[in-house]
Design a protein that fits this description.
The protein is about 40% helix and about 15% strand. The chain contains eleven helices and ten strands. Helix 11 links the parallel strand 9 and strand 10. It is globular. The model has no long low-confidence stretch (mean pLDDT about 95). The protein binds D-glutamic acid.
């Protein structure tokens, strides 16, 4: 059956982090209708157990794909992807694109051979990350740091609050303090929230350190998977939240800047 041109791409994260992936998608597929889902009732995923994240993500995506009928689902969250991508793919019939730490491009770029990786505490302990390291960075030093405060900082920044400089400085200092940390020249932003505060992170690392994330690669992958499909936006794109909360109003300009003209609670 041909795909309805108005069928959306569903982009999913625990919070506003996936907006960094949506920005990349807008650059390659501006005409694609999108429903952005933030599981703010479950935020932060990075402080949950693997079982909690897997159950939550599979359950929610199951209900959402049934109700919203997307043509493709993008899990725009490293924590959810590194824990639950395989399980979600097993149960859903719709194509799923995940987000995994950009260790491969980082290994190709580093000159010093020392790579930093900032993610959530759940992401940095995943076997998925061990496997990427073994496959692409076995001859490099990969220093991992879990920085839940940076998720909070990004959520606050998109609500119009000033960037939490102390949280940024702590994360940078933690990586620099590890053995070989002074030689880091490439940092993988392995949480989709972190590109949203890349400017402050880049300034704190200083010149000579390159920050990389997977958003452009994900956007290209989505464009490739939908290359033969037609897109038609019949209504403004929608942002859905899993819980109503006082701060949602503060997000309206960030959502509008991401092309999300309507919002609702799922
Ligand atoms: N944006 C999510 C990620 O990419 C994590 C945020 C959270 O802890 O929920 O890992």
């Amino acid at each position: 059956m041909p795909i309805d041109p108005a069928a959306p791409i569903l982009m999913f994260d625990s919070g506003v982090g996936g907006l960094s992936v949506l920005a990349a998608l807008r650059r390659v597929l501006p005409q694609a209708p999108v429903i952005y889902v933030a599981d703010n009732a479950g935020l932060p995923y990075g402080q949950k157990t693997e079982a909690e994240v897997a159950a939550r993500v599979s359950g929610l995506l199951g209900r959402m794909t049934e109700r919203l009928r997307p043509r493709l689902v993008c899990i725009a969250c490293n924590t959810a992807s590194t824990i639950a991508l395989a399980a979600v793919r097993d149960v859903l019939e719709v194509p799923i694109v995940g987000t995994v730490p950009a260790i491969k491009p980082a290994a190709a770029l580093t000159q010093t051979g020392v790579i930093g990786l900032l993610g959530t505490e759940a992401t940095i302990r995943q076997g998925y990350v061990d496997r990427l390291e073994a496959e692409f960075a076995a001859d490099k030093v990969l220093l991992r740091h879990g920085a839940p405060d940076l998720v909070t900082a990004a959520e606050a920044q998109l609500r119009g609050h000033p960037v939490d400089q102390a949280a940024i400085d702590r994360a940078v200092a933690a990586l620099r303090a590890m053995p070989h940390g002074d030689r880091i020249d490439t940092v993988v932003l392995a949480c989709t929230h972190f590109p949203l505060i890349a400017e402050a992170l880049g300034a704190a690392f200083g010149p000579g350190v390159r920050l990389i994330d997977g958003a452009d690669g994900i956007a290209r992958r989505i464009a490739w998977l939908t290359r033969d499909q037609h897109f038609e936006r019949r209504a403004p794109d929608l942002a859905l939240f899993t819980r109503d909360e006082a701060g949602l109003g503060e997000l309206s300009s960030a959502l509008a800047a991401s092309g999300l003209g309507r919002s609702d609670v799922f």
